[in-house]
């Protein structure tokens, strides 16, 4: 069987679409038989696996990014950590941080991830949903599935990492966690969204 010849232009195009390293793009195209869509899937799987290995590494560097929106009515500060000062000063990293700050300004998440949601708030939401399901006369076995589904939906609405980026066209409907994982794959470092604060004129804590 004749090996597929991978053109430099195809490698360059795949790099532009994914942000992956040139050698990784060439390897993925070779594995995919020259099919760019399959190559993207291969890069995504490999990137997620590598990101999982990096997730335990310490993040002692990073930046605090800011974003001001709506004529100065909404402001965001977000701390995004990485492993080295070299990456913290990288244009790709700072652009990623800015995109996250922009999203927070528009989407107004309450927590970085589900682990930050206070147990009391989780229980209060569950109690409300269970009472509503009971009021609707749902059977108990069905009620539990309904409540679990609604709890998952509620968590996605209020946690940053589970939200899809507000600029869906630019980011292909990816979640913030998917974008974080891709940024980690591009830089080769563990990247962590540590915390954020969102301010809006006239809005109290």
Compact summary:
The chain has 205 residues and is of the alpha+beta class. It has nine helices and three strands; from the N terminus they run H-H-H-E-E-H-H-H-H-H-H-E.
Characterization of this structure:
There is one protein chain. The chain has helices spanning 8-18, 22-31, 36-54, 85-88, 91-107, 119-135, 140-158, 168-171, 176-187; strands spanning 61-69, 74-82, 192-200. The longest helix is centred in the first third of the chain and has 19 residues, at 36-54. It has 3 domains: 8-55, Helicase, Ruva Protein, domain 3, CATH 1.10.8.10; 61-113 and 159-200, Elongation factor Ts, dimerisation domain (Tetrahydropterin Synthase, Chain A, 2-Layer Sandwich); 118-157, GTP Cyclohydrolase I, Chain A, domain 1 (Orthogonal Bundle), CATH 1.10.286. The model has no long low-confidence stretch (mean pLDDT 87). With 205 residues, it is α+β, with helices and mostly antiparallel strands. Helix 1 (8-18) packs across helix 2, helix 3 crosses helix 9 (176-187) and helix 5 (91-107) packs antiparallel against helix 9 (176-187).
